[in-house]
């Protein structure tokens, strides 16, 4: 990522610069949006309700681990192109567009918690009441199809006392960035989706995104919301499909890696998102699968596919433990190292990380767990305060009777004989298929990748 540079072609053409924009929410999406528009020459104010977060942003730092974002943020803050505040009033009053980027976390029912969006709409609506000019409110938070029209719109009209398309504009502009490459994905997206109520609002978003070379799809508000869910649930489908194939390969005594790689050469299938492992975690894929399933159920449709995706995903940590036990016997009473606690390598985000069900299952089976993550340990301690934590990967492996790699951190690929030789039983289950099997085995440890194990051991 460090070698990546903003391409020249996205330099803003005259006429699309120098707007004032407001972003509500200083999370991944809000800050990536703010940095993107800042780099395109606009003056952006980010509003957040969490005071320490606002202070962090104003000091040019990112509140989460995303190094390229932090680098760009620091430059923009220094140049006065980006600032953060807890008070939305000035920011909304001056802005041509207001981007709502607040969280929509999952509820136990599978639905999303829409309260942060409601609060943001109420606050923005109240400020629109006294604001001059035509401002466009843009929903970027992921919300189930129908929400912008049936909830965001009436709230904005109620609190502003103005009519949509007359007093203010309304768009739905879903975000597709991946954590770990947030800025690159914002500046070089695969596509930009602009759902709008009226042409005028959509035209403003088109103008704002004009310097960015990407397919631009204009549509209505509800289709834009559905495009986001169609995309994320397809990614989850690929992962659960890969996991299903890998689980079968394991039982057939073959390695799933060449099988899925060969399948991926077909352009109709594609090579990406076919890595088997412990399942998809993170703040969005699990949440979005369940939220769409729940939204469909309310509309009278029972989604068998989404139910199956979730069921496969839930069983993957158990598959990894089974592989370890098949090779090395029951984990009861053993010291098991878990490397990687973030929901994937390269981030410190532990939302819906598969480390939680993995470690919970190991503990339920009577194992002693020692865990390590290069960046996410402080966040993970809040989820599981009582397990043992190591201060390095090497320390984590010391005396272990086996190890499961839960997140694909690059530095785990450098582990070798020095570290493996300190393990009581040198056996690694690669829960992300991110290590080099030959390198691990040459360094004296037994390698088992999910969808790989019995290729080198006993068959069933
Ligand atoms: P986040 O939790 O990282 O950040 C949300 C921020 O909004 C927080 O800082 C919070 O304090 C702030 N906030 C909440 N209510 C507020 C209010 N009323 N006024 C001002 N600030 C407020 O969330 P995120 O990960 O950026 O996700 C935001 C939305 O975008 C979600 O709907 C998510 O599903 C979607 N999304 C996320 C990603 C991702 O990679 N994280 C990618 C695409 C889409
Ligand atoms: C995902 C999508 O990739 C983004 O396009 C989307 O914008 C975002 O969700 C969102 O809506 O928030 P992200 O949450 O950053 O992005 O994570 P991914 O890189 O997609 O990984 C999700 C999970 O799937 C991780 O646990 C990862 O380890 C797992 N995964 C990914 C696999 O198990 N196999 C794969 O082949 C790929």
Strand content: 5-15%
Strand numbers in spatial order across the main sheet: 3-2-1-4-5-6-7-8
Give the overall silhouette.
elongated
Number of helices: 17
Number of strands: 14
Rg is 24 Å
Helix content: 40-55%
Distance between the termini: 43 Å
Structural class call reads alpha/beta
Each distinct ligand: nicotinamide-adenine-dinucleotide, uridine-5'-diphosphate-glucuronic acid
Q: What are the low-pLDDT stretches, counting only 5+ consecutive residues below 50?
A: 1-10
Give average pLDDT, whole number: 94
Major sheet size, sense and barrel closure: 8 strands, mixed
Describe this structure in words.
The model is unreliable at 1-10 (pLDDT under 50). The strands form two sheets. The chain has an eight-stranded mixed β-sheet with strand order 3-2-1-4-5-6-7-8, with helices on both faces. It has a six-stranded parallel β-sheet with strand order 11-10-9-12-13-14. β10 (368-372), α14 and β11 form a beta-alpha-beta unit. The chain contains 17 helices and 14 strands. Helix content is 43%, strand content 13%. With 460 residues, the protein is α/β, with parallel strands linked by helices. The protein starts with 19 loop residues before the first strand and ends in an 11-residue tail after the last strand. It is elongated, with a radius of gyration of 24 Å. The chain has helices at residues 28-39, 51-58, 67-78, 88-94, 115-130, 147-160, 182-187, 199-209, 221-252, 256-264, 285-298, 304-328, 355-364, 377-383, 393-397, 417-420, 437-442, and strands spanning 20-24, 43-47, 82-85, 97-100, 135-139, 168-172, 191-196, 215-219, 335-339, 368-372, 388-389, 403-405, 427-430, 446-449. The structure holds nicotinamide-adenine-dinucleotide (NAD) and uridine-5'-diphosphate-glucuronic acid. Uridine-5'-diphosphate-glucuronic acid (UGA) binds at residues 142, 175-179, 232, 235, 239, 273-275, 277, 280-285, 343-344.
């Amino acid at each position: 990522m460090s070698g990546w540079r903003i391409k020249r072609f996205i330099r803003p053409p005259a006429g699309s610069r120098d707007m004032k924009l407001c972003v509500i929410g200083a999370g991944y999406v809000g800050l990536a949006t703010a940095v993107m528009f800042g780099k395109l020459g606009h003056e952006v104010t980010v509003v957040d309700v969490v005071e320490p977060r606002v202070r962090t942003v104003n000091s040019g730092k990112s509140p989460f681990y995303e190094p390229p974002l932090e680098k760009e943020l620091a430059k923009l803050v220094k140049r006065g192109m980006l600032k953060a505040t807890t008070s939305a009033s000035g920011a909304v009053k001056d802005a041509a567009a207001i981007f709502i980027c607040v969280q929509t976390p999952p509820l136990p029912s599978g639905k999303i918690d829409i309260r942060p969006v409601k609060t943001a709409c109420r606050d923005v609506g109240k400020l629109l009441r006294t604001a001059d000019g035509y401002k466009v409110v843009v929903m970027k938070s992921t919300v189930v199809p129908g929400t912008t029209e049936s909830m965001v719109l009436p709230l904005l009209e109620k609190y502003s006392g103005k009519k949509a398309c007359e007093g203010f504009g309304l768009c739905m502009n879903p975000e597709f960035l991946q954590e770990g490459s947030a800025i690159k994905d914002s500046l070089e997206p695969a596509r930009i989706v602009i759902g709008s109520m009226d042409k005028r609002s959509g035209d403003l978003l088109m103008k704002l995104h004009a310097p960015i070379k990407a397919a631009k799809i204009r549509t209505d508000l509800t289709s834009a919301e559905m495009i986001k869910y169609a995309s994320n649930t397809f990614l989850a489908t690929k992962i659960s499909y890969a996991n299903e194939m890998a689980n079968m390969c394991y039982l057939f005594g073959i390695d799933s890696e060449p099988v899925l790689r060969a399948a991926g050469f077909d352009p109709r299938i594609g090579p990406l998102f076919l890595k088997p492992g412990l399942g998809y975690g993170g703040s969005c894929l699990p949440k979005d699968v369940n939220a769409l399933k729940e939204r469909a159920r309310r509309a009278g449709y029972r989604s068998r596919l989404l139910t199956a995706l979730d069921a496969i995903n839930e069983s993957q940590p158990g598959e990894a433990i089974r592989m370890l036990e098949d090779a090395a016997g029951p984990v009861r009473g053993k010291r098991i190292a878990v490397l990687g606690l973030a929901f994937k390598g390269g981030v410190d985000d532990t939302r819906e990380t598969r480390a939680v069900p993995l470690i919970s299952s190991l503990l339920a089976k009577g194992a002693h767990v020692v865990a390590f993550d290069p960046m996410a340990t402080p966040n993970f301690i809040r989820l599981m305060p009582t397990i043992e934590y190591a201060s390095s990967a090497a320390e984590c492996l010391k005396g272990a009777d086996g190890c499961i790699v839960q997140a694909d951190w690059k530095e785990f690929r450098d582990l070798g004989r020095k570290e493996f030789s300190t393990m009581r039983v040198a056996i690694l289950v690669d829960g992300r298929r991110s290590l080099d099997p030959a390198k691990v085995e040459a360094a004296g440890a037994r390698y088992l990748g999910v969808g790989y194990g019995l290729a080198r051991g006993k068959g069933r």
